[in-house]
Design a protein that fits this description.
Blueprint (H helix, E strand, L loop, with lengths): L10 E5 L2 E6 L2 E2 L5 E5 L2 E6 L2 E2 L5 E5 L2 E6 L2 E2 L5 E3 L3 E4 L2 E2 L5 E5 L2 E6 L2 E2 L5 E2 L3 E3 L2 E2 L2
Antiparallel strand pairs: 1-2, 2-3, 4-5, 5-6, 7-8, 8-9, 10-11, 11-12, 13-14, 14-15, 16-17, 17-18
């Protein structure tokens, strides 16, 4: 800014070589986080946006559902590693039932509890709803 490094800037910035995590005015090549710019929130791997990333990634605000490198704030349900997400964020306070393509599962503290067998409002065996 004005021909000087703006050390007040922390964002995701773009140049001809990619999208980069800029912290205090310079690229942080060691950053592995989720960060934002005007286009959304992005998964940063080694300082660069990973547009191929489809996973759960974390930053200081929580754990997030990543689709093609970007946080998917619309996602609700079970995702990678059997985590329960609400509005794209792992909800560690959630306890109850949730479904994915593999069935309906018992979730405790935001993650499928494969050790649980018993009854909630229905029968559960090894974490999965028994029909």
């Amino acid at each position: 800014k004005n021909d000087k490094v703006d050390t007040d800037v922390t964002t995701v910035a773009q140049n001809k070589n990619g999208w980069w995590y800029v912290k205090n005015g310079k690229v942080d090549f060691s950053a592995n986080t989720v960060a934002k710019n005007n286009n959304g929130w992005w998964h940063i791997v080694n300082g660069k946006v990973d547009f191929n990333s489809n996973t759960i990634a974390k930053n200081e605000n929580g754990w997030w559902k990543i689709v093609n490198g970007k946080v998917d704030f619309t996602f609700n349900g079970l995702a990678h590693g059997w985590w329960y997400l609400k509005d794209g964020k792992v909800d560690f306070s959630y306890n109850g039932l949730a479904a994915n393509k593999n069935g309906v599962w018992y979730v405790k503290n935001g993650k499928v509890d494969f050790d649980y067998s018993g009854n909630t409002t229905c029968k559960i065996s090894k974490g999965k709803l028994v029909i």
